[in-house]
């Protein structure tokens, strides 16, 4: 029999975006905030290691820490530029350090919340409880919510791309940015590696996040990211003098591999975040999909139902759309720049954001699909249907 160090009502394995979003949701709810909670991670979140951007219509649960938001965005290619209003959406930015400090600050006022900083070796379950084994002990709860990579499927160049990026927050001496307008995608950079674009997200007239982003099979040498950023800032933003305030680097899987909501069919282990398939396979966006999943989990827990829920049919349709586009990119049927350019040339910003956010109507879906060439998407779509 396994010796259990301590028992809890819920265990959250991993204290990144998904884990802390779930913790925030539990502590914000009168029915759940008194539960005995354990959060386990190998290290404390104390660094500004990432930036999350997302769009939504209303004020969300993290509105108080939104660093900046934009009502207008731009899309650019070498021969096409479009500036568009986002109504009814806003495009929002949250800095990692603000998110971590906000949730950790909330949790610090609760005696029933424990944090343990230790390496997780194994997560297992039987019929009535789940177990998390770390290097120093074993902990149990009726449910474990896992956002670690322990149950990730096998990913390789045949079934996956990597979205990888380096971002710089820069400051200029003179006011050169319009903080009301963000650049969602600038495809003017060289496409020699694959789908490649820049984000430019100004937060003031002299400060902006510039991010070099690629969808490719493998990451680049470190100096290539720096060279590309310097070239873009010089040639496209026409800036020679600036200060780099902050840098960040990240890798997000964009995969046809199956990220299961529950490993090995266990009802007691619930995968959340990227581990549960809540990184959008076709774009890499994660934050807003995590929040929707957390909302569903909280509703189930409050009703005494299992938080391990089946995927609604409409979400399965969106997953098929994502897998179809990803298959088109992996098999090189079309370049990413060409795909996104065709959509942004022909469709309204509202319908595009609704589609990318899994909030579109069937009519929106048809409009988006009619913007794209039939043959590559038909063959990839049929292929992904057969594989289901």
Architecture overview:
The structure is a single chain. This protein is an alpha/beta fold and 388 residues long. It has 3 domains: 6-56 and 93-152 and 258-302, FAD/NAD(P)-binding domain (3-Layer(bba) Sandwich); 160-255, D-Amino Acid Oxidase, Chain A, domain 2; 313-387. Helix content is 29%, strand content 30%. It contains 9 helices and 19 strands. The longest helix has 18 residues, at 313-330. The mean pLDDT is 95.
Features:
single chain; 388 residues; FAD/NAD(P)-binding domain; D-Amino Acid Oxidase, Chain A, domain 2; 3 domains; five-stranded parallel β-sheet
- CATH fold annotation of the largest domain: FAD/NAD(P)-binding domain
Q: Evaluate the radius of gyration.
A: 21 Å
- Main sheet, how many strands, which sense, barrel? 7 strands, mixed
Compute the number of helices.
9
| Number of strand elements | 19
Q: State the helical fraction.
A: 25-40%
Q: Beta-strand level of the residues, as a percent range?
A: 25-35%
Structural class: alpha/beta
Q: What is the molecular shape? A: globular
Order of strands across the biggest sheet? 7-6-15-16-17-14-18
Low-confidence stretches: none
Architecture of the largest domain, CATH level 2? 3-Layer(bba) Sandwich
CATH superfamily of the largest domain: FAD/NAD(P)-binding domain
What's the helix-strand series? EEHEEEEEEHEEEEEEEEEHEEHHHHHH
Q: Mean pLDDT, rounded to whole units?
A: 95
The level-1 CATH class of the largest domain: Alpha Beta
Provide the number of structural domains.
Answer: 3
Give the termini separation.
39 Å
